[in-house]
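SAMPLE LOG
Freezer: B-3
Tube label: C17
Construct: single chain, 85 aa
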Amino acid sequence: MSAQSLNIMLVDLFRSETELAQYQKDPEVILANYDVTDEERTRLKDPDWGWLYTHGIHPYILVQFALAMGVEIPQYVQQVKAAAG
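STRUCTURE (predicted):
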C-alpha cells in the first residue's frame, strides 16, 4: 500500500467514530477493508509511530491517530525523533 493510501485510511477512521471504535476494539476488522501489507498491518496495530512517520504518513494525520489511540505526546515525539534521526 502506498503512503497516500495509508493516510486515506487513517483519515477515514477520524471521519467515523464507529470505525475508530471498531479499530480500537479489533483492528483486523477495519484493516480487512484496505490493501495493507503485512508489515504495515503490524506497524499500525503495534503501533510504531516512528516507522509510520518515516514511511510517509503525514505528521498531522499521524499525531491525530496517536491521540485517538490514547498515546501520550511525549511518547509519540520520542519515537518519531528516534526514527527520524
